[in-house]
Amino acid sequence: MKNLFKLIYRYHVVFLFILLETLTLSMVVTYNSYQRATFFDSGNFISGTLFEKFSSFTQIFEFKQVNLKMAEENAVLRTALQEMLLKSNRGNYKASDSIYLPRIAKDSSVKAVYRFTTARVVNNSVNQQHNFLTLNKGRHDGIKPDMGVIANGQVVGLVTNVSENFSTVISLLNSKWKISAKIKRNDYFGSLSWDGKDYRRVQLNEMPYHVPVQNGDTVVTTGYSSSFPEGLIIGTISDFSIGTGSNFYKIEVMLAADFKNLVIVGLVENKQMNEIKQLESLNKYGN
Amino acid sequence: MVINPVKYIIIFVVSVILQVLIFNKFLIASVVAPFMYILFIVLLPFDTPRSLLLFLSLGLGFTVDIFTNTPGVHASACLLIGFVRPGILGLLTSRETLDSVDSPRVKSMGFNWFATYVTFLVVIHHLFLFFIEAFTFQGFLITLLRVVLSSVLSIILIVLSQFLIFRN
Question: Is residue A1 part of a domain?
């Protein structure tokens, strides 16, 4: 017994190292990006505040460009709104006249499913295998997990954790996150994920051979995940080849959003998310 | 000799802040990503007790993990270099030198010695870190390329810091 203690004392550093290393490595292995402990989260108070202070300083120089981008986006949205109004009210009203807008909004058959809000990016990375963003809005501002994050109508990521004043977003540039996506031209869908190599390209998988694919095809969201509306732009196909020994294409998608230059992002909340989830959970018990 | 803990707390904070606010955003050709924050472990005094060195390395790694949302990744890599550091020092230096000098600096140990010592620590750290992060040997060569190029930049940054900020 005495010898055992002597041995442990003699090699206590080695034992300590093995113990701590096992502990940290098991954290790496069991780590799940969807159910992370809030402590290890860039949305926690200390790191969130530090990122916020620093980014409000560095982003001053970028706001002029952001304003221009937003003005452009507004113009596009205004045009789309006009078209929608014309379509939905053909024959009933003179849709070009804006005073009819409140009457349409009151109409109970037209209910907005998605609610949009904005937030400022206080931290962002593109150089890791598992990239996250931190936003300066949290529970206090009505941000909830599973809200979609977009920039200029292009997919950026998904809210994973929310603290009182901050939220963290799993980026599309995170090899642990997959999203369903389809080719806009023919509606065939596959699953989109990142291989961790190039921050400008993601991979569209599970697209069978018989599907006609072309370079330059636009890839958009399917709306199946219920976090994003259908038809948000993800990117364009830049390269595709037939994988060896598989029945699927290897498709490279050039991202539309510039992940290195995100300042203001939009958040999308699906108001019917809970209803959809409840309904879908019924199927899991069925078989 | 008396070690000033305040100095090392400052080195710790400055290393972490530089890493998370500046160098974590740094990316060349989506391959090179420097991790210079291990500067703190590099600069610790020669006679730091080995178990204390492990706990300090763990603390440093966890702090960076919190900012990068990667629980355990940096902590395990830092632990490893905290563990091998005394061995590397023994390999590069005689016992007498270690007893007569307090801490590893360019000024006291010379440029060549310091660069070799930093290279050992950085390469071990980066090799472990990038493979743990990728958690696969798929794309072995691209990960190796990331290790080599990032290591070069980290080594340059750490050695350069000796001439810029940490004069003493």
Answer: yes
- In chain A, residues with a C-beta closer than 8 Å to the C-beta of B70 are 28, 31, 40, 128, 130
What percentage of residues in chain A have a pLDDT greater than 70? 82
Least confident of A48-62, A105-119, B40-54, B102-116: A105-119
Q: How many structural domains compose chain B?
A: 1
- By residue range, what is the domain housing residue B63? 5-164
A39 close contact with B: CB closer than 8 A = yes
Question: Which residues of chain A from 150 to 209 reach within 8 Å of chain B, CB to CB?
Answer: 168, 195-200
pLDDT attached to residue B103: 84
Number of structural domains in chain A: 1
DSSP-assigned states of every residue in chain A: -HHHHHHHHHTHHHHHHHHHHHHHHHHHHH--TTS--TTSSTTSHHHHHHHHHHHHHHGGGGHHHHHHHHHHHHHHHHHHHHHHHHHHTTTTS-TTSGGGHHHHHH-TT----EEEEEEEEEEE-SSSSEEEEEES--GGGT--TT-EEEETTEEEEEEEEE-SS-EEEEEEEETT--EEEEETTT--EEEEE--SS-TTEEEEE--BTTS---TT-EEEE-STTSSS-TT-EEEEEEEEEEPTTSSBEEEEEEESS-GGG--EEEEEEETTHHHHHHHHHHHHHH-
Tell me the residue range of the domain where A17 lies: 1-30
Residues B66-92 have pLDDT tens digits of: 888 778 889 999 999 999 999 999 888
Interchain contact, A196 vs B73, CB within 8 Å: no
